[in-house]
# Entry
Amino acid sequence: MAAKLIKGTEIREQILEEITAEVAEIKEKHGVVPGLVTILVGENPASMSYVTLKIKTAHRVGFHEIQDSQSEDLSEDALLGLIDKYNKDETINGILVQLPLPKHVDEKKVLNAIDPDKDVDGFHPVNVGRLMIGGGELKFPPCTPAGIQEMIVRAGVETKGAEVVVVGRSNIVGKPIANMMLQKGVGANSTVTIVHTGTKDLASHCQRADILIVAAGVPGLVKPEWIKPGSCVIDVGVNRIGEKISEKTGKKIAILSGDVDFDAAKEIAGWITPVPGGVGPMTITMLMKNTLKSLKFKLGIA
Ligand code: NAP
# Structure
């Protein structure tokens, strides 16, 4: 194997340890810890397991954590009322509304009601604008893109002047990571191209990428011959391609694959992220980092 593996599982551990140490220091100096509330409406099993993981991680790093679970039939007005309550709650620095919401609730209206200074997911239009302006304006980069950038930086990949090609233009991955990589600053300062289903020759763009970030949700989309030798390949895709029995639990689990032909690509790239165990573990980690940042902004120590 030519490529170095960039393991999200290992980077997650480093970052969570850093956050835990910083939380302890702030607690000692300022007598407060970051507060995170997760609002879950209904009992979607995937959302419930995701929320459980967020809560577990928040406890691990020493946050004050509230899980606010509401029934499926909670009205939109009642949900907006809850958000207003947490917007005003001085002990809460981050508000997270787990998606998807039930059909009778306008998701956009709900997300836009979150105080932008507590929007640790970074999806509020104000935070999207702050990201676009960059520099000192940036408060909360969305968690998956923030995780991707952190992985690139911690792997020691040169970003300044690098050709970055992003496959996918979603609001949660493609557009924000492209914006972040083109900012003038550390871990960025790259020349960025975004490609999508309207792009004429996907292969030729990917082939000149020093850093190729793939977030399409199409297994095996990126072929080995599209990868520039020695480049850094970040595979964001998480695709269920089958099922198997877990050796640990004996239960059925999904077989996951990324958007890149990993076995062939790892022989060509200089760095590559695996799926699973690559970008996946970074999202909740960066949510913790944003929540800590939110408290630091409030204390004037960010
Ligand atoms: P999305 O909203 O479906 O967007 C996919 C993007 O890829 C779109 O912009 C689409 O182009 C583009 N695309 C799809 N097929 C393509 C093709 N054949 N050629 C070129 N472009 C193509 O998906 P997303 O939310 O960004 O997620 C992408 C993948 O990342 C998914 O597998 C998702 O599960 C995974 N993901 C992982 C994490 C994590 O690990 N923490 C977080 C978020 C997402 P158009 O705009 O032209 O349709």
Observations:
- The first strand starts at residue 4 and ends at 5.
- The CA atoms of residues 178 and 192 lie 6 Å apart.
